[in-house]
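thought: fold this chain, then report.
action: predict
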Amino acid sequence: MFATYEEALNWIHTTRTFGKKPGLKRMEWMLSQVGHPERKFKSIHIAGTNGKGSTLAFLRGMLEANGQIVGTYTSPYIELFNERISVNGDPLSDAEILRLANIVYPLTKELEKTILGEPSEFEIITMMMLLYFGEGHADVVLIEVGIGGTYDSTNVITPIVSVITTIGLDHMNLLGDTLSEIAVNKAGIIKATVPVVIGKIGKEAMTVIENKAAEQDSTLLKYNQDFFVTKWQTLPTWGEQFVFEDDFIRLSPIQIEMLGRHQVENAAVAVETLRVYSHETGLAINHEKLLSGLKHTFWPGRFERINEQPLLVLDGAHNEHAMKTLIETIKKNFAQQEVYIIMATMRDKNIQGMVDQLEEIPNSHLILTSFDYPRAAGIEELSKVALKNGAVTEHWQKALVDSLNEMDETGIVLVTGSLYFISEVRKYLNETND
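observation:
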């Protein structure tokens, strides 16, 4: 057992192994030992290649504005491990993390003695979350899938409503090489008769989801078919405005302070999800409070403006699907400006694919770099990437300083490639400014 928070965290992080076999048997075994806490609270389950975190943030904002106590489970964290399990945006205290780790630790030791073997790091953290919310600390819990869906540790819950935001190529070594294979995995969160809200998803993946929903007798609500966005415009200040409509409600105008068409889509998915949730649970929703909740939603690392003059933006785009979305936002809003891009990413990503897209941005200067993380692509790997007019720099801090010095007052510096990378940059900038 652990005496301090640091000891508990060290144990969690040193259990880096993915479970020996994909599947939910280890989770189910542990949950059966502690009275099934996952059955004791209301939840919304959110899967998708990209957009999970932002959709969750919009939902949290609207629910909180309507007086709900909202639990969240997200990954990865941006600054502090405790963020992963939060209540109304406040991370759990060190003391709570220690207490939960001390409940889960003996369970893992017992589990190790079985044929199932030891749990993974993600399974341990998910167990801590389920135990905590099973104690009744929130009115509703928003749970973000880690990877995939079917075999994800979070897939032991039966939510009030399920959400699939987007489907693109990512984590192919685990989920499959085609959109259909990945969709099969994401659609694994669809439970019998539980309604599912679907974001902007292409035909190939949608067919898979439709088949799974039919099999499970689940109602599907699709973006641009069952709910719609109209009159979208980017605000002169930072943000977007649009009208939301489905068969039941019309909300006009909705304003959000997060930039990009994709955030309009994420917000629309969140609004439809809330409408379904309120219908299923009888929760009364005040539309003025809903609009206020959306307007004040913030999610770090999603085209996040860290500094206005010079303009410095952090974005956690970490796969080709997200990079395409990021580039659309840049081309729409910063077409005339010089764009300095500093990118570090994981070695298991399609780095060449992301670089090729970034080099399409007019007036851009791309710098590839690395950072201190076990899975980060190193300088040696980055040096093999074919660049048209980019460069490779060992130290991202130098790349950042050089870019800020070179740019004129209308330029933009964009740091991207990995949520883990922007987490490190964010921390560095905060310490520098203290």
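thought: worth noting. Residues 304-433 form a domain with the Protein-Tyrosine Phosphatase; Chain A fold (CATH 3.90.190.20).
final: tokens above.
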